Amino acid sequence: MSNGKLDRRDFLKVMGVGGVAASVAACDGPSYITSEQGAEQVIPYLSPEEYVIPGKGVWYASTCLQCPAGCGVRGRVREGRVLKLEGNPDTSLNAGKLCQMGQAGLQNHYNPDRVTAPMIRDGGALKEATWEQALALIEEKTGPNSGISGSRFAWLTGPTSGHQGVLLKAHLEAMGSSNHFVHEVINTKVWQAVSRDMLGQSMPTLRLDKAKLVLSFGADFLGTWMSPIHFSGQYGKFRSAPDRGMLIQAEPSMTLTGANADLWVALRPGTEGILALGIANLLIHKEKMDASMLPAAARQLIDRYDVATTSSNTGVSGDRLVRIARHLKNKSPSLVIAGASAAGHAEGYQAVAAAMLLNMVLGNVGKTILPTNEFPFPQLKPIEGGTADLGRFAKALEAGQLDVVFYDGANPLFAAPGHLKLGEKLDAVPFKVAFSQFMDETTARADVVLPVASALEDWGTHVASYMGDETAISFQQPLMEPIFPGTRSTGDLLLALIKMRKPGPFDEIDDFYGYLQSAIGTIPGAIKGDGEDEINTQLWNHILQKGVLEVPAETTTFETSIPAITLSDHSDNAGYPYHLVPTPRAGFYDGRHANIPWLQEAPDQITKVVWNSWAELHPSMAARLGVEEGDIVKITAAGGVIEAMAYIHKGIHPEVVAVPMGQGHTEYGRYAQGRGVNPLSILDPGNDGKTGEMALYGTRIKVEATGRAGRLVKTGATETQHGRKIVATITGDQLRRTEGS
Amino acid sequence: MSIVRNFIQDWSRYRKGIEDGGFHEYEHMWGMVIDLDKCTGCNACSVACYAENNLAVVGEDYFAHGQAMHWMRIERYWDEPNLGDKASKDTQEHGASFMPMMCQQCNAATCEPVCPVAAAYHTPDGLNAQIYNRCIGSRYCANNCPYRLRYFNFYSYYETSWPSPLDMQLNPDITVRDKGVMEKCTFCVQRIRTAKSDAKMDDRKIQDGDIKTACQQTCPTSAIVFGDLMDHESDVHLLWHKHQTKLGTPKQDKKNPELRGYRLYEQLNTEPSVTYLERVREV
Amino acid sequence: MNGDLEPNRVLFRLPRPGRRSGVRFLGLIMFLVGVFITAALVPAPSYADEIFTSPKQGEPSAWSGWLEKEPGPFPGVTINDEPFDGDDVEQPIEFPHNVHADTNKINCLYCHTYARRSDVAGIPPTSKCMGCHSVIATDQPRIQKLAEYWEKGESPPWKKVHDLPDYVRFTHERHLKKFLFDNPDMGVERVDEVCALCHGDVKKMTVAKKQKSLTMGFCTRCHEANDGPFDCQKCHK
Amino acid sequence: MAEHTAATKDIDEKIAWAKINADVLRSMQNPRKGYWVALAFCVGLLSIGIYAEVHQYDIGMGPSNLNNPHMWDLYISTFVFWIGMSHSGTLLSAILHIFHADWRKPIYRFAEAMTTFSLLTALLFPIIHLGRVWNMHWVVPYLSDRGIWPNFRSPLVWDAFAITTYLTASVLFLYIGMIPDLAICRDNVKGWRRKLYTFMSVGWRGDDRQWRNFRKTYLLMACFLIPLAVSVHSIVAADFAMAIMPGWHVTSFPPYFVAGALYSGCAGIISLFVLLRYFFKFEQYMTLPILDKTCRLTFAIAMVWTYLNLIEFASVWYGHDVTSKEVLLAKFFGPYSPFFLTMLFFGMILPFALIVPKIRHNMPLIFIVSILLNIGMWLERYMIVAPTLSLAYHPWTWGVMWPSWVEWGIVIGSIGWFGLLFLIFVKVFPSVSMYEVKEMVYHRRRVVFDDAEERVMKPSRQEGS
């Protein structure tokens, strides 16, 4: 990297104050001995920077890459080290707030298990190599002389956006390939498809703060769904007096959002659509709401689901349905959303569409669901990930279509269900290159490992897939010098790969930083550059300062249409009578953060378990099995068996066993390896008929007690308050009396 | 004689303080309000606290022994005593009850008088200070804390918690505690100290919002409000005022008993500086 | 690892005995019994009552008799207080403070420029040294050594002489503000007198050497005399 | 001498003084094999404790299994137990001395030694339980460069004062009471012992002035020691009573602790009585009537303790404090109930065995009973410390903890330490007070003589008085 050229980076040079403090004698007599002379080193700057004062923290803006939501962060930098991350108050997406995963971005960056040097598979094992060797090998396999045809090359990445996305596409183009598989387990693809079909745009703006009631079908918008911190901010306003909103959550197993619901409805997995239609039925027939905008087919469909049918399918009592309908009628505007547990079934699309239909019946579209502005730069738009691509990828592998696979930001070997047999299929691919920070399951089986810089050491631009009110590009800038000199920026590597393959427009550009600077210069906007300079310095400085650039965007309108919805009734499966719910949790997310000690030690929000996996059971199920908390249960699906310790609570449907995603790594460093189980490994095959997304919540299982007990490590000795006034709760009526309008 | 004189002086000051709300002698009175209705129990504050305060990650075994170091812990209860017993219900009727618990910075703290070496003492800012290098580890303070919010370094956690390069993240504004030292939430005293120092350098007073605790800063729903209770314009003072919790009285003389403010275990007369606002549930 | 980062792995600790030194324990217990017995026989000091009431301004306190309040810019403290003979510290370059501060009358704050803006006074950046020494005294061996470092693009690894324990926070900026900038008797040109209160007479030294004990007693005596804060948490982090 | 071992036989008033000297001095000479075995056993126990403590010193408090609700456990309860043990000596030598109960005379010396050594043992525990032992001297007020002091409001600081004062006083008391005996020893031994006794007997010649001063000093010390003994355990009780925790914040704790202390001390005396009587063949001096009296005294104290215990239950039960009630119920029915009920049985029911003469006169049985009483008293202390910490105000942190090998090791080591000190004592110092036994015998003789005199020459006696 051409360090000398980039003055901007000099501030990152370290000013070392301190060293290792030696220990002090046991009895502190005359206290001269409590400090040493000449034991520590002080290494001054070579050249000073005006804005860097040793001993004072400086805040730099960047973007959080811990999950795809794309929140803005600021890092406190002192003596060349980033010490703390906070939300960037200049963004509208997260407005200065951050979740636990964002806070733990530091330990992603400073992780002791990072890959520090390139590795090449040599005789079955990965051995450290130099960058020259690694790049030479890649050139040999994918360069212009390798003779590889584009169709036999593929990228498997996580969701990406901005200029990295541009470079990725450029590389694919240089390779002559169109095989870009984007994998993301926790996604909103189905919601987007439904929105596109019913509203005319895939990411409508949701306004929880404007709603008086939110009915959520398994959308964990406070934890993992879409843009949790953005929605948490809205939730804070939603919960503010005088017009405090009400939250109803219907889902098979309690999520963080469910744990905050005023009314929590346990329902049989896969019946979310029926519940939505049943409520629509009640609204139309009992609450006499106007449904004239619905086409006849939709009316007929709704009419099918009277209280009895809905109740028998979903397992929700009729009283409760009536109550929900009455609340929906009384509290307007409301907002109905549907998340992972609704979408993760073979009829996931239909279920989400039914929820959207309910929005239309309630007249929420245009009130709490608003059109999103059109992002003006199509090339920078986010490349969304989903699980459908994993299926496509597996098919392509099975057909033997791929000779070379590059991975970046995806760990398919961990996240893929066992039935895909992805491991064996990938082993058959002759050449696999992993761009990776960590030795995860996929990286460990690659042929070449390229260690990349962490999110806090790299440049980049990001466009959030859910942007809310503000159309903006978020910027990522390094907060410190790379900790490990052996790592390189992904952008730099992509540029090198493109140049390696084919001469073209990127030949003039030295590195990703230069590319980014020149690319930003072309952005038209409110902030104009000096005009003469090649680089728009003023804009650039603004961006570095704020971390986010608002871009002008066109307003749009909805084009509503109602597709045909077909839902089948709930059916029993005698062999596998129960349902498996692989719950995503804010924390490990899909398992990518299991190597972060802070997050391993942070108790799960619902069960308060740390450092392990567990299986959530309903007390009735536990009684049936004869297990108590901590006993190990065996969960058998058609695709495999997992064993986990039981945690028993009533926030789960009696026919459901919930096992959190995230643990069960076989690689991935000292903190993650060999802990817990991975529920994704035993998923049943099955896809959403419309979008092809995997039916994550559609697995049928049977459960047995093993007779063994484990040690369920959790915080909290009790589940109840023992009559003490610890968390005092009052009713909404009382709130309206005291703080109401 | 000076013992008698001091005693009389202190006693009269104390009595007067009680009548005037208990804190007129202080420079600042840092206080907090946590709106339990907004708290989602997401744990962001807890991890932010780990990052800010050099909290050790103890690992599964020590955690199982109850030796964890979470200054900010989110408690989760399933029952809701005020709303009647839901035990008969088949599944959970409402969500869970989350309770962010950190040192309540009591103004009549039970931990302070029992410390043999005065490592736990009350600062002129109204904080319960814990001076780590003075602590001899008698653990009396933790025994006498009704909230159980003091954490003890049972091991030299730093030897295992931050394998290189994780140790580069350690905040130099706070000591990394060694074995045998009691520690607890400090209301991010290093931030208070820096902000006060900066304000004094500029010869100005501290403004509301100059200091944000790590938990407050990260709280996604803004459920935590922190500030100076003596600054009558501050958000935290306005909230205390609005919900009629007052320092210096064991029993709150609320005009309207339905107002949401309460302090945990008020009946013990510890006078915490943290007011919780009751959670609301539509039933 | 990046070489620049190496010395930066600060691990702050409290005083503790070395590991595996527990065999001394029995002796310690015996010592303690002695101490306890002695302590029980020795009456408590008469000013024990002053412990928890920090004295009002102007009111005599337990410490008043100990201090000779002297007229002048710094009541109660002088440069000659608390003599302490520090160790000789071997620096990469034997920097002559006397030549700079005494002979050439360079103001302390010219080089230690962060002192008035930050907690730490800082060592001047190497570029600042080279600012003068690219032309001045380039024939001297020490300067040539400096130039060598500069050529290599490195800074000399200076050794810290005045080190406080890691649980102590000392801020240079506030002390300079109090004793220098807010002190009508003082001007910036006399900053060396302020520095000397804690750092000794650096003007007379070549390589800096510890001349003051910098113990807690050293701090508290000055705080007492100058109405500095007595809140433990102000200085202990 | 067979006639003297008869069950009801009191001390033989005809015994020659030289024989008393000889018997006691014999007990200090030529340790037999059994002594060395016992010594090795105690050293073994002590080394377990030292090993555990060194381990804990190196690693931190973690290996002791202490955790967040249980910041204190065995260390503090054993501390209170040993402090309790120390009260026996004061009771026997000081209180009974003032009340002129002459039966104390043959047994008070070892009881005082027990006081001193159990204090020395107790003193270890507050130190061992500190997280940073190497800073323990900060609890003591001393002039330091920093100008800071301990927190005089803390009961732990009071503890430091109280225990050190009590230790000093009881060491002095033990030593002063021993001076005439040391002089006897000095006159009968050679070698290093002679040097030692010469030094320690501070020129005792047994002349009139010395005896007069000695008696005054001894009485003064006794008077001084009694309030100290009461205060030291009241202050230990304050460690708990000053806290706000349910089950600790009990007004009746100081008298309750003092009663418990006297109780366990007396039980300890019975145990040592039996041991010394058996091993040193002190049957002539430690006679059964003395044991009877000791047992009756123990029983009386046990009843006081029982009464205070019941008062505590009643005041919790009829009070309004829900948390205290929870703790009490948890003691009865919770995870601690086996310990608690055992403690109630040993502490309240078992002392009734002491009033049965058959049990009293069966040496092995009374020894077992006294050991069980002390186990009960140890459990009592444990039941004060642990359940409260398990169940305090905040349910989220409730939890029961079982001590680890480190804690047990140190507790066992403390027994070894006490035993070691005591074993050394009995071979270096006379464990039966020779001069006081002589005094006692003299007085008994006087009584016999006087009775005879009364019968024969009544007028002259009247004249004499």
What does this structure look like?
The complex is a heterotetramer of chains A (741), B (283), C (237) and D (465). Chain A is α/β, with parallel strands linked by helices and 741 residues long. Chain A folds into 4 domains: 103 residues, ADC-like domains (N-terminal domain of TfIIb); 191 residues, 3-Layer(aba) Sandwich (Rossmann fold); 182 residues, Dimethylsulfoxide Reductase, domain 2 (3-Layer(aba) Sandwich); 132 residues, Beta Barrel (Barwin-like endoglucanases). Helix content of chain A is 27%, strand content 18%. In chain A, strands 7-6-18-17-16-8-9 form a 7-stranded mixed sheet, sandwiched between helices. Chain A has a 6-stranded mixed sheet with strand order 23-25-24-27-22-26. In chain A, strands 13-12-11-14 form a 4-stranded parallel sheet. The longest helix of chain A is centred in the middle third of the chain and has 15 residues. Chain B has a single domain, classed as Alpha-Beta Plaits (2-Layer Sandwich), CATH 3.30.70.20. In chain B, the strands form 4 sheets. In chain B, strands 8-1-10-9 form a 4-stranded mixed sheet. In chain B, β4 and β5 form a beta hairpin. Chain B is globular. The mean pLDDT of chain B is 86. Chain C starts with 24 loop residues before the first helix and ends with a helix. In chain C, α4 crosses α5. Chain C has one domain. Chain C is mainly α and 237 residues long. Chain D is an all-alpha fold and 465 residues long. Chain D has one domain: Formate dehydrogenase/DMSO reductase domain (Formate dehydrogenase/DMSO reductase fold, Up-down Bundle). Chain D has 17 helices and no strands. Chain D is globular and about 70 Å long. Chains in contact: A-B, A-C, A-D, B-C, B-D, C-D. At the A-B interface, β5, α1, α6, β13 and α20 of A face α2, α3, β2, β3 and α8 of B.
SSE inventory with pairings:
The complex is a heterotetramer of chains A (741), B (283), C (237) and D (465).
Chain A: E1 16-18, E2 41-43, E3 58-63, E4 72-78, E5 81-87, H1 100-103, H2 105-109, E6 119-122, E7 125-128, H3 131-142, E8 153-157, H4 162-175, E9 180-182, H5 189-199, E10 205-206, E11 213-217, H6 228-238, E12 246-251, E13 263-266, H7 272-285, H8 296-304, H9 307-314, H10 318-330, E14 334-338, H11 340-343, H12 348-362, E15 369-370, H13 388-398, E16 404-408, H14 412-415, H15 422-427, E17 431-436, H16 441-444, E18 448-451, E19 460-462, E20 472-476, H17 490-501, H18 512-521, H19 537-546, E21 548-550, E22 578-583, H20 597-601, E23 614-617, H21 619-625, E24 631-637, E25 640-648, E26 656-660, H22 669-672, E27 699-709, E28 729-731, H23 732-739
Chain C: H1 25-41, H2 97-103, H3 108-111, H4 126-133, H5 141-152, E1 158-159, H6 172-181, H7 191-199, H8 216-225, H9 232-235
Helix pairs in contact in C: 4-5
Chain D: H1 17-27, H2 33-59, H3 74-85, H4 87-98, H5 108-128, H6 155-188, H7 192-200, H8 208-241, H9 253-279, H10 288-318, H11 322-333, H12 337-349, H13 357-361, H14 363-390, H15 405-428, H16 434-456, H17 458-464
Helix pairs in contact in D: 2-15, 3-5, 3-9, 3-14, 4-5, 4-8, 4-9, 5-6, 5-9, 5-15, 6-7, 6-8, 8-9, 9-10, 9-14, 11-12, 12-14
